[in-house]
Amino acid sequence: MTALPVDWASARRTVYARAAARSAAIAEVGLADADGLTLAEPLVARTPLPAFTTASVDGWVLRGDGPWRVAGRVLAGQRAPELAVDGTAMEIATGAMVPVGATTILRLEHGELRDDVVSGTPKAEPEWRVPGEECAQDDELLPAGTPITPGVVGLAASCGYDTLLARRAPRAALLVFGDELLDAGLPGDGRVRDALGPSLPAALRRLGAHIDGFTRVPDTLEAHVDGLRRAVDAGNDLICTTGGTMHGPVDYLHGALRELGAEYAVNTVAVRPGFPMLIAQLPGGQFVAGLPGNPQSALVALVSLVVPLLAGLTGRPFPTPAQAVLAEGIPGRGDFTHLALVRQDYPGGPAHPVSHVGSAMLRGLAQSAGFAVVPPGETGNRGDQVELVELP
Ligand SMILES: Nc1nc2c(c(=O)[nH]1)N[C@H]1C(S)=C(S)[C@@H](COP(=O)(O)OP(=O)(O)OC[C@H]3O[C@@H](n4cnc5c(N)ncnc54)[C@H](O)[C@@H]3O)O[C@H]1N2
Ligand code: MOO
């Protein structure tokens, strides 16, 4: 009944390519609203930076040999008049435009002012920044597909952008299956707390999706079909579901996908844990990400397939995993890729396997940086450099 699992690395590539072919619409957004979106065009400098010769210290801007008679002052924001006569100076502020004719700048702390005459020894190199030091006009500063961070927004503003062409955040919905799930209070008597409804929307937001919350869907085929239809009608590009990926007595995801005419991009992946994960596409092109119900497995599916899916949808590059050095050995999982939770004491530090890593558990995951990747047929040995798929 279960489909043949596909190789983990190929599944990620397949999903990325499918999503990239349907990347999100491009919109012109104001700089203040652009954080978290993705550049849909290269960021090209609209001006040299700095745009004019700019004082980098407070002091006096000088012409010729000293001492210098101070003939005026130029502040940041002003158009500087020419410094036309040798032996004259102007008081100048950091960030001010350097007057044409200036020879150098004398720092405040290196000069002495008596009446209106300044003397002192300037540094050998003029303390100003010349146009084009940071970039020339038309330099490509960042390629299309770059995630827009506060740093990108600041750079765009610096070089003259008022708006950016950006791919909007894909809209996502989360449907949580499982009549055994509780929203509050203590688990027991066959009921378990829903660990995914309250956590996955936050994870999806960190991955660049726009999502409001989650919807609990009863364990019937009709409710599954209805839940998926409603999520499509609400304009979602991606519908994540949790649970019901197998073929148990109340697992209806596959049946619902069949009824809606969905086509699988990936149906079960050769990875442990989390193998029943899937990505399907509905006739309107929307993606369904079926995450297994076991909570750790759901996160494995998220980092394995939803991360490349969102990268494709937003026009970002394929998310190549980070690298880490194993602090201890990790067993392989035969023909399957093993994603093993690891802790790092500092970013980029050695990867320590953690305990409490059953697929139904989150105790190990909550203290982990991500999953170390042990490829099929291999074992992870202490000191090995491995891929590290980070948790959001
Ligand atoms: N006959 C077989 N049974 C199972 C196999 C198998 O190979 N043969 N694989 C197991 C594996 S591995 C996984 S993973 C699960 C995947 O099952 P489903 O995706 O259909 O998930 P459910 O059956 O709905 O739930 C599994 C498990 O997870 C708990 N769960 C579900 N949702 C949540 C949630 N939101 N928060 C916390 N816990 C949740 C649920 O109560 C179950 O315990 O299938 C195995 N079975
Ligand atoms: O593959 Mo399941 O996802 O081990 O828990």
From TrEMBL:
Keywords, sorted A to Z: Magnesium, Metal-binding, Molybdenum, Molybdenum cofactor biosynthesis, Transferase
Enzyme class name: transferase
SMART domains per the UniProt record, alphabetical: MoCF_biosynth
InterPro entries linked to this entry: MoaB/Mog-like_dom_sf, MoaB/Mog_dom, MoeA-like, MoeA_C_domain_IV, MoeA_C_domain_IV_sf, MoeA_linker/N, MoeA_linker/N_sf
Catalyzed chemical reaction(s): adenylyl-molybdopterin + molybdate = Mo-molybdopterin + AMP + H(+)
Cofactor(s) annotated in UniProt: Mg(2+)
EC nos: 2.10.1.1
Top-level taxonomic group: Bacteria
MoaB/Mog domain mapped to chain residues: 173-312
Pathway where it operates: Cofactor biosynthesis; molybdopterin biosynthesis
Protein function: Catalyzes the insertion of molybdate into adenylated molybdopterin with the concomitant release of AMP.
Record family assignment: Belongs to the MoeA family.
Protein name from the UniProt record: Molybdopterin molybdenumtransferase
Lineage of producing organism: Bacteria, Bacillati, Actinomycetota, Actinomycetes, Micromonosporales
